[in-house]
Amino acid sequence: MISLRHVLTALRLQDSLQRAIDSLSPKLLDTTLNGASTDSRLITPGGIFFAAKGESTDGHRYVEQAFAAGALLAIVEKPCPPYNIYTMETIQSARTLPLCLQVPNSIEALQQIARYWRTQLDLQVIGITGSIGKSSTKELVASVLRQKYHTLKNRGNYNNEVGLPITLLEAGHGHEAAVLEMGFYVPGEITFLCEIAQPLVGIVSNIGTVHAERAGSQQEIVHGKTELVQALPPHGTAILN
Fold first, then answer.
1. Are strands 99-102 and 201-204 parallel, antiparallel or unpaired?
2. What is the pTM assigned to this prediction?
3. Does domain 4-113 have CATH number 3.90.830.10?
4. How many whole angstroms from its chain centre is CA 67?
5. C-alpha distance from residue 179 to each of 97, 117, 129, 217, 232 (Å)
6. What residue ranges of the chain are covered by domains with CATH 3.40.1190.10?
7. Under CATH, what is the fold of the domain 122-240?
8. pLDDT tens-digit profile of 199-215?
9. What span, in angstroms and rounded, lies between the C-alpha atoms of 6 and 12?
10. Burial class (CB in 10 A: 0-12, 13-18, 19+), 152
11. Residue 118, Cβ neighbours under 10 Å: how many?
12. DSSP SS3 for 57
């Protein structure tokens, strides 16, 4: 599973900050973190809470609830009294968990951490997209792979720029495969998700007019779905319905 060391390394923006990370105790750095969420109600003991400000609520109001649920780390954008706030520049003074780490943007931090964590895993990722049938295809592929491999899949509608990174943070070194559904609403979204997930196999199911009002047209949806195929490595495999 991901550790505090991985999180801090992912968020390190310059080499000089590595010294601050290395000054922390190995016991603290190697603390295992158990998954992540932007919803304090879904935090599991040992988890990471990403406090984000949404249209109708502000996650910073729920840091206390997240810690009460067992979160060991809260990624925040602003002070959250009564908790001490650390930044990457002051993290060397941290001694115990739980703690609050302030960053410019919590969701971007989530994505950055997931992108780094993916590079630390020997994981075969199967990306799935399509207007119709992607969820059932995900379930079917994951069910087949689980007969032989330790397989991860995203839950429910965790298929966007928040849900997919959260899913990857659930992966451990024991996982061998991940089946990740990728949603599409605007051009470039699947390209972005692929930059994080790095799929080796891409499956495109039926393409219809779902979300055409957001994408602009069915042709834009076609272009969006092909982003998955274009993101595959030269030795990757595309499966088209």
1. unpaired
2. 0.93
3. no
4. 20
5. 32, 16, 11, 28, 15
6. 122-240
7. UDP-N-acetylmuramoyl-L-alanine:D-glutamate ligase (3.40.1190)
8. 999 999 877 655 555 55
9. 10
10. buried
11. 19
12. coil
